[in-house]
Amino acid sequence: MVTDTSSGGTPAIRVDGLRKSFGDGDDAVTAVDGVSFDIETGTVVGMLGPNGAGKTTTIKSILGLVIPDSGTVEIAGIDVHERPRRAYRNVGAILEGARNVYWRLTVQENLSFFAGLGGDDPDDLRERHESLLEQFGLSEYADTPVNDLSRGMKQKVSLASTLARDVDVVFMDEPTLGLDIESSLELRSELDRLADREDVTIVLCSHDMDVIETVCDSVLILNDGSVVEHDTVDSLLELFRTRDYQVTLESPVADDVLRRFERAVGADCSDDGDRVTVTFTATDGDEMYAVMDTIRDAGAELRDVESVDPDLEEVFLRLTETGDGPTDDSSAPTGTRPVPGDSDGPPTAATTEVSADGDR
Ligand SMILES: Nc1ncnc2c1ncn2[C@@H]1O[C@H](COP(=O)(O)OP(=O)(O)OP(=O)(O)O)[C@@H](O)[C@H]1O
């Protein structure tokens, strides 16, 4: 089910009928194939999808870094194609981790530079910058060149620089990558604060399902260039909550009975010598009764039946039907990654900021 999350007002981001192909003829690849969604102001939205699902292309199209073949993008009701300067004025993005800050500049200089990009006088934002430095534990490094900092600290500078000016919409790709647990938790509460108290809209791509599950209000799942789901995290978890069951049988259960049972239930049984555990999905009550009948017919003794709460990772794998399990990197959800040479759009206000590459 694709749900429109807008509540009637102008959405922070509106994407309508976005399409983008790369290459020609037999080599053409359709990266984004008619993507449409609204993102409500002040919400944190996780964008997920297997590798090649079209996440990067969608985000780059929203930011004006890739020119779509068709479709429109509006930020706060302003068409980014018609009025790019106005549309991108309060948009920030971290697309390549710590690479979007200037490593030869000091931490403070980076904050001032990025504040200046938005047309603000950095002196007017001194208080904001001091509080950002404090929040991210960077105060004592204010005059240190970014180059001399650890990877995690560089990531924090990158985040602080994005927030150095007044932003209404922020795109973040893997913002917790390289952060220690404490900093990652700090970041999560900072994202909550930005969305709740400052009404900032945040679009987050992360490999870390835990971050997505705890920080995001809703999730947008892309697969094969299309939106396959756009719903709240709670609804998505609810969707599968009552479908998974774990049945425990008294051991021993004869081998042939186990195999028959596996075939009937469509799941693997594990026998630890004391008990036999079977986890299966029953989409309705009839299926559940059928499983119970199978257990009775097999003469197995039922010890326990429990429903199993799925986590977001499982929901994601089912919706995208990658089905290879969370350990398979090729199917795991990922954040956006840079694709060399795809910046075929003209410079925009957003381009200027997000592609301000480090001087390594
Ligand atoms: N510049 C390009 N030239 C050719 N093909 C491209 C280009 N950019 C993206 N693609 C192709 O478009 C499809 C979608 O890519 P995209 O990078 O948007 O997916 P993604 O969901 O961000 O994947 P990942 O998680 O691997 O970063 C892929 O098949 C990719 O190979």
Can you say what the CATH homologous superfamily of the largest domain is?
A: P-loop containing nucleotide triphosphate hydrolases
Strand content: 15-25%
Bound ions, cofactors and other small molecules, one mention each: adenosine-5'-triphosphate
What would you call the quaternary organization? single chain
**Helicity level, as a percent range?**
25-40%
Given as residue ranges, the uncertain stretches (5+ residues, pLDDT < 50) are 1-7, 323-360
Q: Which sheet architecture does the biggest sheet show?
A: 6 strands, mixed
Number of strands: 14
CATH class of the largest domain: Alpha Beta
SS summary, helix count: 12
What's the architecture of the largest domain in CATH terms?
3-Layer(aba) Sandwich
Distance between the termini: 45 Å
Q: Give the overall average pLDDT.
A: 79
User: What is the domain total for the residues?
Assistant: 2
GO molecular function, one term: ATP hydrolysis activity
Domain ABC transporter: 13-249
Keywords: ATP-binding, Nucleotide-binding, Transport
InterPro entries: AAA+_ATPase (IPR003593), ABC_transporter-like_ATP-bd (IPR003439), ABC_transporter_ATP-binding (IPR050763), P-loop_NTPase (IPR027417)
